[in-house]
Amino acid sequence: MSDLKYSKDHEWLRVEGDTATIGISDYAQEQLGDVVYVDLPEVGQKFAAGGQAAVVESVKAASEIYSPAGGEVVEVNKALDDDPALVNSDATGQGWFFKLKFDDAAELEALMDENSYQEFIAGLE
Fold it and tell me: Computed from CA positions of residues 12, 16, 20, 23, in that sequence, does the dihedral angle turn out positive or negative?
């Protein structure tokens, strides 16, 4: 069972204390195709839940990435600057986008667990 939570926009979030690591789901990276560039937020930037936080560009399209929770960016994955394909090869691991010190843990309750997310994407196909 995964410790990840998912948004309807296909972002995932892993909570560690008062910080959450955020990236896109395997489903999202499969839909995008080969990722060629990731425009990450700046450390110190603040977002509301659902706010646009990053942009990922693939051979097919550019897609906005939304923050599943409100808070302040405390770290970004610099490895994506040199190797954006990490998003394709390890979307829920080394391909993470940013870490957020979240404002309100109650916002996390609105996110889906792994089973709910799998049901959600099954309904999209």
Answer: negative
